[in-house]
What does this fold into?
Amino acid sequence: MGELFGQLLREVDRKKMELIEKPIPAPETTEAYEEQFLYQSVFYNNIMEGNQLTVDEVVRVLAKDEVIVGKPLSDHMMLVGYRDAMSLAQQYVQQNRRIDEYEICRLHARLLIDKPQIAGEYRNYNLMIKGHRPTAHEKISLKMAQLAESRPPEHSHPIESAAYFHLRLEKIHPFGDGNGRVGRLIINIMLEQAGLPAVIVRDDDRPEYHAALNAYDGLDGNRQILPMQILLATLVNRELDTLLAL
It folds into this structure.
């Protein structure tokens, strides 16, 4: 698997250089790509959490402020919250702001507009998730401070760092809800700050994504980082291919 990851990183670096040297697309082409990415990102990240709105309905809610008859109001609010959290994430990218506890909690508060009572707040109870036990709530503040203060190894690839940060955050599972969505936003912040494209975990990627999270959980005593790194490198390559084709 290590050889595969190395190959994927070489492809990423090569395509990144090709993209830099490629003529800039027409403004309307870039705008169409960014609009499509927004809607797809909102859709796939929220359908993972049980949201019932279709892609077309996502567009109607976000672009036209429509209310879809027969669909829960909470599902509409999830879309708006994710869109607004994406906007905040873009501010972090443009400011090249380092992601610490304050930024993470602020993203979470922007995201969970449908659950203001827990938005931006660490959970104060323990829980089990499909047989996995995240960090005990008494240790969340310490673990989050350690995560925020950590630095990637020298000469590590941005994909390695983003994957590892994501795995550690999801293992802590600091919030009562919205951990995955916040974590995937942070992946994209870290990628874009490194000059790489943001990515989307689509339906077809979901089994591999959950398998990578489980591999790091280490229930068998063998905690693995590589599966998430390989998945993330694959997603970045896919998005680079899309951008190169514009």
